[in-house]
Design brief:
alpha/beta; Gyrase A, domain 2; 19 strands
Amino acid sequence: MKRLFILSIDGVPYSLLTSLIDMGVMPFFKSLITEKGFRRYNSVLPTISSVAWASFMTGKNPGAHGIFGFIDRRPSPFKLYLPTGKNLRSKTLFEIVSDAGKRTISFNVPMTTPPRKVNGVMVSGFLSTKLHSAVHPPEIAQKLEYIGYIIDVDPSLALKDESTFWKQVYNALEGRKNAVKTFIGQEWDMFMLHIMETDRVNHFYIHNPEKLHSFYTELDHYIKGIFEYIPDDADVLLLSDHGFCSIEKEFYVNTYLSRKGLLKFKVEDPKSLNEMDSSTIAYSLIPGRIYLNLKGREEMGSIPQGDYNRVRNEIVDMLGELVDNGIIKRVWLKEELYSGPFLDEAPDIILEPFDGIDIKGDINRKELFGKSSIKGMHTLEDAFILWIGKELKGNNSFSIIDIASSILDELGVGRPPDMEASGCLA
């Protein structure tokens, strides 16, 4: 049975890759492309890396794995928190493959914090704070430090110390390549390396062709260097989790809800959603997740359970003006997108924006629209996948949820009965 090497490159759009290739910026990547093995495909809603990679690893929609955003909330008592791998309530590819008696090695994959005790090696990604607590088994931490491996760059440096930001980016890429060089000789059936630096760069430089082209030229060199270590008997899969585009403007949903009288606060200048008044009807978390203040679910619920459908439908009707005005592409009900044991935790309404309209959850904005220092946003329909030597289904005919089952098939591992992934291979 063949082995599989997966190189995941966060937030790289299919459209950007094809454009750069046409300009001669990424000659090595171009050399990998086969006509039927390179496709544009869909991410998930909300289009957030933590949600997308959780869906990739489990082959399930968010309602079945429990991750709905980069920030989430506990409704009673109300508390905002950052979901980690602890909140991912499903087995991942790494555990499924391990349980089948095969060995996995993974580096830097989002939503693997803390590392799970797989048969092999797992080094967690960007929500980890210290390398020693991010690794399984623990004894490999010293080796990673020796080769210069770092968990993540500091994205804020792109705004306050650009030269240090770029130094960190290239140091991180060098560390990723060194990790492959160091561990590729071990026994493994599935090896996955995740590059997060592309997402960090795109958020701040997607609008800057000169710096973007320079970075992707270097990225092409790093990818070529990684391929020099991949054994000939391994199949190779490359993919991103979502696309990217420049931000035209930000839309502040909580300001909109406040103006409509649906979101109220106890104080004039609130600092957090914890200061919501009990008369609130609805509030929003980034990006475009709207929750009703439902009695019996929310700490200070105001909407009787029996009025849920009526109130939600009224809000959906109201949001129709955003569709009419070209702000929102579509308004979704949670049951239209999600299913599974965690459906009750899902946002009641999900807004799908047009590309270029970045939906925010700020509570202290006086205006409906604005801009910030972030220049790039995630897009739903422009992720890329390249499975060398394979034939994939057509462009945008599958999503990131569907890939897991094809990976298991290629490794000769049975699909769990609750995995909904339908496959990506033709």
